[in-house]
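User: Predict Acyl dehydratase's structure from this.
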Amino acid sequence: MTVEIDRSLIGRRSAPYIVEVEKGAVRRFADAIGDPNPVYRDADAARAQGFAGIIAPPTFPVSFHCPEEPEWTRHLDRRRVLAGEQGFHYARPILVGDVLTCSITFVGVEEKQARSGAMQLLIQEIDGRDAAGAPVYRHRRVMVYRAAPAI
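Assistant:
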């Protein structure tokens, strides 16, 4: 397999970026995933469930976008990229009104061989911290990078 993902960049972190969690964005996300739970729309319903206010669905951080693509993915051929596995760990729920400082870390690369051909799995972690600097969430995601087609 031709190595295309620069492993020398493993451990690098993106510049921090700010995400402001807005009520409308949370509602639209909940609508898009088809989740009618009122804790994603109504503060009284959320408080009745023990939350400090409206919370975001657990997969909401997939909607956060880094304003600048990380250096380890800039050169990749987007036609060969697939979304892979992802997981979330929470220190606490994301709340409407949170102002989160996020950054992406390049964690590693794994090589795999599938029936469709060789691939590299690029592993990244996105961390979000609140205004006080306390951790809120960690989103671990895997990007599948398929081998170039034979010419």
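The first strand starts at residue 17 and ends at 20.
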